Amino acid sequence: MTTIKIPYGKNFLEAYVAEERLEAVLESRAHHYRPEATEADLVRQALENPIGSKRLRDLAKGCRKVVIIASDHTRPVPTKIMAPQMLAEIRNGSPDADITFLVATGFHRASTQEELLHKFGEEIMKNERIIVHNCWDQEALVDVGKLPSGGALVINKLAMEADLLVSEGFIEPHLFAGFSGGRKSVLPGIVSGVTVMSNHCAQFIAHEKARVGILEGNPIHTDMLYAAKQAKLAFILNAVIDADKRIIKVFAGDREQAHIAGCKFVSGLAKAEAKPADIVITSNGGYPLDQNIYQLVKGLSSAEATCKPGGVIIICAACNDGHGGDTFFKWFQDAPGGARDIMDKIMKIPPESTIPDQWAAQIIARVLLKHTVILVTDQCDHQIPETIGMKTAYTLEEALKTAGLIAGSQSKVTVIPDGVAVIL
Questions:
Q1: DSSP labels for 120-144?
Q2: 260 and 284 share a domain?
Q3: How far apart are CA 196 and CA 184, in angstroms?
Q4: β-strand pairing of 413-416 with 22-25
Q5: How would you class 405 by CB atoms within 10 Å of its CB: exposed for 0-12, middle for 13-18, buried for 19 or more?
Q6: In terms of residue numbers, what domain contains 207?
Q7: pLDDT digits over 2-30, tens only?
Q8: DSSP conformation class of 30
Q9: Could you say which residues form the signal peptide (predicted)?
Q10: DSSP bridge partners of 287
Q11: What CATH number corresponds to the domain at position 334?
Q12: Whether residue 195 is found in the same domain as residue 327
């Protein structure tokens, strides 16, 4: 028997799979990468040697109003390590700068004070100005034109009025934007809900280039990059992290050049050959990305890429925050015909009429049309995922037994411990 270990919340779940049934264990090599310096030193080295840009301290000279876009509670960005050095760089160039952290919630709920404290730490929480973006607060937004796709581009006013706009974040594979990080801090991070919906329309989500690991020709990426340019995002600091959420590499500098360099590095570590199997076990990488079902599209997409038609996907995720959004969950509550009903409705919606959270419903429906999905959780009311069309289990062992009844007791099993981290 082989012991498999799957991230779950802030811990792990374990189960045993017979060696003759185990097809493969697919992992990002980032999880085994050994950095040449400490996390703090990696950040410092990146800030001292920016890609395609002056140093942040030089960009800050003469700037009075500086905005740092920070990721929200759903992203495992090591802000406690990165933010203090960004502040030091900015204040080296402009000691009296008025600095604001703008939390890029995008379409997510607002971060709580407890979540902000966990992210920023006591020192920054006590001494710095932190504003949480609200994509529906019209008074906090400004219209700056149209996206290449034709959608309205409406951005947070604080960012647009800044003398210097910079961002922190991290780079990992992303199921439809190609990669996270870089330009994504602006769109969807700090734009209007209308702009997010236009960018995440059904036609773009279904586009053949809107897939993990692809930037060129990806219409979602094109819109995002344009939005970052219009916002005058001048400098990014993006980390690459391992399974323990520790920094292994940092990229700083120009919003496009530094991001591309980071994406190439991640791609080199994250690519793995798909190993089709009747049962695929995965996760959303544990906390913070497995707090709700809405986010599970990431892990499910990776499993989808290597699960045989009609096969079973087991995804382990705490989902302690429930479904993750009323508008998302409503798609499934109002779909008597299940996934087929949802997909048919969504594909008829024009881009300008995109409905909140339809992209997540679209991807989950796409997966459910091809596979049985079993959600392993002991922290979420099972009625929620069952309404969505998933089966449920309290333990990984229980899920494997159910999967065996569906796919066969001797069916092959492929394991993707962290479904967010790989490009298959």
A1: H-HHHHHHSEEEE--TT-GGGEEEE
A2: no
A3: 11
A4: parallel
A5: exposed
A6: 32-269
A7: 999 999 999 999 999 999 999 999 998 98
A8: G
A9: none
A10: none
A11: 3.90.226.30
A12: no
Torsion of CA 417, 314, 184, 323, to 10 degrees: -130
With respect to residue 349, please indicate whether it lies within any of the assigned structural domains.
Answer: yes
Distance CA 424, CA 422 (A): 6
Catalytic residues: 108, 174
Domain count, the chain: 2
Chain CA centroid to CA 21, Å = 31
For residues 44 and 38, give the distance between their C-alpha atoms in angstroms, rounded to a whole number.
10
Q: Which residue has the tokens 């906090």?
A: 140
Going by C-alpha positions, the residue among 249, 293, 291 that lies closest to residue 270 is 249
* Residue 164 confidence (pLDDT) above 90: yes
* 241 three-state secondary structure: strand
Q: Which of 202, 229, 207, 203 is nearest to 217 (CA)?
A: 207
Tell me the residue type at 95: P
Q: Do 214 and 242 have their domain in common? A: yes
Please say if the pLDDT value at position 31 is more than 80.
no
Instruction: Look up the pTM and report it.
Output: 0.86
**Interval 298-324 mean pLDDT:** 96
